[in-house]
């Protein structure tokens, strides 16, 4: 395997057997090397490929970054993949590595940036937030740098973004949107939802994927007027509440949520409200 480009002493690029550019990492793997030379395979610690547009971005991010930072970011990403159990867009190597690098440098310079969405991330994306907390432990263990808990929220946001395929601006809006939707339900039914109940957890899980589908424009396009009318007749208040949420999403995203998606949402609203009345 030959070197295509030397990024720094610890990161180089090469090609796989299909001619696709790959990133090769390892302590000292690029030291004193030039393009065209053979790679010392004993120094390889990680090989991965990125979408073409992301490869140059990653190389730019790590060009002047200490190898310990890059390796720590890789440990965090590997832990996230193993723990969360869902697909993460490969762009996470660019975004999270870049974020952690700056976060570590800010900490060492005494600069603190508050995360205004930390509470919402912990509440609505707890699995990702817990991975963020573990990431702080990994950074502490590997680099002896203690990042503030707010960073767990930022890391969780990057993981949610990677799950959505890289739409970072929209994923930042998701926790606040879920909070707003829950408030619409509370105000419509004049109730206080039991946040410790299983039905509430299920409802929030549905909202997470509902908002994600709408933001990604992947909500159901299937038309079923008979089903919609059935739900409207059986659960009129829940259907009315779902229509309010549809109007909210229209104003927030300038996008019309499909009727069948709203009908399913009404069913979930009915379930969480009905469970409180048992």
Chain-wise SSE layout:
Layout: E1 5-8, E2 11-15, E3 21-25, E4 46-48, H1 52-62, H2 67-84, H3 92-108, H4 118-124, H5 126-143, H6 150-163, H7 168-189, H8 198-215, H9 225-234, H10 236-253, H11 259-276
Antiparallel strand pairs: 1-2, 2-3, 3-4
Helix pairs in contact: 1-3, 2-3, 2-5, 3-6, 4-5, 4-6, 5-6, 6-7, 7-8, 7-10, 8-11, 9-10, 9-11, 10-11
Q: What do these coordinates show?
A:
By secondary structure, the protein is of the alpha+beta class. It is 62% helix and 6% strand. The protein has three domains: 1-49, Roll (Transcription Regulation, Sacy, Chain A), CATH 2.30.24; 50-163, PTS-regulatory domain, PRD (Orthogonal Bundle); 169-276, Orthogonal Bundle (PTS-regulatory domain, PRD). It has eleven helices and four strands, in the order ββββααααααααααα. Strands 1-2-3-4 form a four-stranded antiparallel β-sheet, with helices on one face. α2 packs across α3, α8 runs antiparallel to α11 and α9 crosses α10.
CATH architecture of the largest domain: Orthogonal Bundle
Largest sheet: 4 strands, antiparallel
Give me the CATH fold name of the largest domain: PTS-regulatory domain, PRD
Shape by Cα distribution: elongated
Please indicate the percent range of residues in DSSP E strands (runs of 2 or more): 5-15%
Tell me the strand order in the biggest sheet.
Answer: 1-2-3-4
Question: Rg from C-alpha positions?
Answer: 23 Å
Please bin the fraction of helical residues: 55-70%
> Regions with pLDDT < 50 over 5+ consecutive residues?
none
Tally of domains: 3
Output mean pLDDT: 88
* CATH homology-level superfamily of the largest domain: PRD domain
Work out the number of β strands: 4
> So how many helices?
11
Structural class: alpha+beta
Report the span from N to C terminus.
66 Å
């Amino acid at each position: 395997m030959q070197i295509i480009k030397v990024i720094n002493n610890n990161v180089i690029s090469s090609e796989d057997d299909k001619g696709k550019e790959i990133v090769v990492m390892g302590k000292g793997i690029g030291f004193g090397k030039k393009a065209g030379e053979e790679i010392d395979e004993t120094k390889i610690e990680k090989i991965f490929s990125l979408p073409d547009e992301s490869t140059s971005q990653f190389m730019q991010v790590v060009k002047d970054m200490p190898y310990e930072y890059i390796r720590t970011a890789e440990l965090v990403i590997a832990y996230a993949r193993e723990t969360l159990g869902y697909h993460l867009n490969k762009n996470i190597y660019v975004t999270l590595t870049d974020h952690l690098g700056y976060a570590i440098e800010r900490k060492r310079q005494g600069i603190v940036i508050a995360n205004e969405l930390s509470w919402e991330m912990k509440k609505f994306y707890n699995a990702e937030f817990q991975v963020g907390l573990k990431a702080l432990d990994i950074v502490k263990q590997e680099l002896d740098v203690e990042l503030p808990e707010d960073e767990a929220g930022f890391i969780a946001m990057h993981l949610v973004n990677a799950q959505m395929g890289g739409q970072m601006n929209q994923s930042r809006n998701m926790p606040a949107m879920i909070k707003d939707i829950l408030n619409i339900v509370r105000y419509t039914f004049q109730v206080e939802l039991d946040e410790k109940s299983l039905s509430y957890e299920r409802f929030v899980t549905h909202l997470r994927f509902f908002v994600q589908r709408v933001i990604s424009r992947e909500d159901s396009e299937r038309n079923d007027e008979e089903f919609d009318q059935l739900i409207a007749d059986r659960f009129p208040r829940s259907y009315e509440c779902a229509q309010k949420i549809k109007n909210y999403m229209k104003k927030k995203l300038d996008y019309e949520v499909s009727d069948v998606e709203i009908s399913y949402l009404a069913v979930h609203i009915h379930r969480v409200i009905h469970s409180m009345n048992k």
